[in-house]
Amino acid sequence: MAHHISAEKRNRQAKKRTARNKSVKSGVRSAIKKLEQAVAAGKTEEVERLRKQAVRALDRAHSKGVLKRRTSSRKISQVTRRAAPAAAK
């Protein structure tokens, strides 16, 4: 329980930030999952579009401070490698 006004405000801010971060991370995971499903199903025409969406979601998460720079870079690399064989077909 917060005893100071500033601590109460910090608690309110933390709740908002946590909700926003959770939403952004969920969007990133959803974008990656859609891409993986398209690759598994062999939908070559959708793979490139979904890869771009996943990379954009990861870049946004990094710019908002939800993901660290190296984490987003690593995940972008992983997404690109997963999509490469399907896009080559």
Describe, in plain words, how this protein is organized in 3D.
With 89 residues, the protein is mostly helical. The chain has one domain (23-88). 87% of the residues lie in helices and 0% in strands. It has 3 helices and no strands. The chain has helices at 5-41, 44-63, 69-88. It is elongated, with a radius of gyration of 17 Å.
General form: elongated
The beta-strand count equals 0
Distance between the termini: 58 Å
Largest sheet: none
Order of helices and strands: HHH
Q: Structural class, from secondary structure content? A: mainly alpha
Mean pLDDT: 94
Low-confidence parts: none
The percent range for helix content is over 70%
Instruction: Determine the strand fraction and express it as a percent band.
Output: under 5%
**Quaternary state, please?**
single chain
Number of domains: 1
Gyration radius (Cα, Å) is 17 Å
Helix tally equals 3
